[in-house]
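ok here's Antitoxin, seq below lol
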Amino acid sequence: MVMDKTWQLQDAKNRLSELVNKAMRNGPQMITVRGKPAVVVVSVQEYERLAHPKASLVEFFRNSPLVGVELDVERVRDHPRETGL
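and the structure came out like this:
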């Protein structure tokens, strides 16, 4: 992620208002803990977009680039597989 969108945890705590404003204006902001990505702060609008996609699962499959592709889904019926039970 771009460095101006990455915050160390201490900086995020000290500058929370700025962090929130940047998330609302400039998109997701990453917070790191001990130099490793930990969480991302996003605006409510971005969260809603990600959490509630507009298309249903059926619409997603109908719009797939694989619509109309013939798939071989025949099952091999020779010997059952071992389950290890």
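fwiw Helices lie at 9-14, 16-26, 44-51, 57-62. kinda neat tbh
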